[in-house]
Amino acid sequence: MAKSSRITARDGVRADARRNRERVLVAARAVFAEHGIDAPMATVARRAGVGVATLYRHFPTRDALVRGAFAQQMEACARALTEALAAPDPWQGFQQLVETVCALQREERGFPAAFVAAFPESTSEHAQSRRRAEQDFTTLVRRAQASGELRADFRPSDLAVVLLAHCGLVTALPDDGAASRRLVAYLLQSFRTDPANKPLPPPTALSLRSLPMAN
Amino acid sequence: MAKSSRITARDGVRADARRNRERVLVAARAVFAEHGIDAPMATVARRAGVGVATLYRHFPTRDALVRGAFAQQMEACARALTEALAAPDPWQGFQQLVETVCALQREERGFPAAFVAAFPESTSEHAQSRRRAEQDFTTLVRRAQASGELRADFRPSDLAVVLLAHCGLVTALPDDGAASRRLVAYLLQSFRTDPANKPLPPPTALSLRSLPMAN
DNA sequence: GTCCAAGTGGACGATTGCGTCCACTTAGGA
DNA sequence: TCCTAAGTGGACGCAATCGTCCACTTGGAC
Fold this sequence. Notes:
Chain A has 215 residues and is mainly alpha-helical. Chain A has helices at 15-35, 41-48, 52-58, 62-69, 71-86, 90-107, 111-117, 125-146, 157-172, 178-191.
């Protein structure tokens, strides 16, 4: 079993370092859930049982830590979008997507704030994958509208409205998720085509990309 | 013109003190709008052109300052509720109320956070007037439902859901209000009775009183 | 077992915000 | 004009958080 490469284990990182990194991520999720995304770095370090220096080596900025802590959730969101596009019924896909993303936000406390605080560096891979997600979502919207089930005046930027509003809700409430479910149901209902619908006020000028940047 | 009473002017408060109090309130609104409700007290004092001590004499706690700064808006909300109850058509009243409150929140940046942060001391007149508002709103809801225009499964606690979500939205966006208007329109639409509506998930256990307390 | 680079922890100086204290200023009644 | 209590401002002590530096420890190659 020649499992060790030239320098050290697997990825050239010492085993204890990798272990500590993981402990920090677990601690970060716990602390962020409990005290919000602005909790002191030292608290995270203490919870993880490591020194501050160790924390800062693995995650030089709070932002990096936040991103690391919720990387799984971000990926789950991306996956949900892919699945939504693959769904046979585009409205089903749309509905599924909104529900899944909101469910993710309500399950991992602190994630919504992280999600909204978003990606500061606009040159990175993140900006790229975000633009990609934006395009995919726009496609999904168009299809659902073409199928006649999503109201014609829905704009992709309305997703930002939904997510920000939902984020505010779940962040404010240490709740079992009932409020979140209720809001989502109300909103999805009014997104669905209904001949009796009155015209909405003009859509926002927002693109998904213009979610507030951390800065 | 015997305008001065025994001690000093009008209310027994020196003219310069009253003037400073007003300057502080103006400054507080400006600073809260710009930097959020957690802006340093010293910033408010500097903006008002007074010393910190002066600020602390007039408003011993940040909470008192916040409440003072947005007292007008709170009163406007209360007035809106009264007017809604007096409206000939209860659904119109309901709609008006939601729109007016949300308009107030979007116009004075920082007010939503103040509104939600709410009233800490539960023994005060505030708790009482809040309970009163709660009862009045419940009455309004019942009437609108009786008229058949508001969906039967709407719960008064849903107002908390709306306000928290809306607060999150306008707080996150330094925006012209388009997003806020859009959200409100979507929500009002789904509150309106529609035979095609599917049942909602169970209402939250929240009473309006359980909006997060500033602990 | 030996060795050393990678990894670690916590002390530390800097910064920021809080709220109080006290010596000075001033409004306004007499 | 004088007098004094009400009002004022800013310096100060305290606490929290940040991010760095450096002396010590340890994983793992040989």
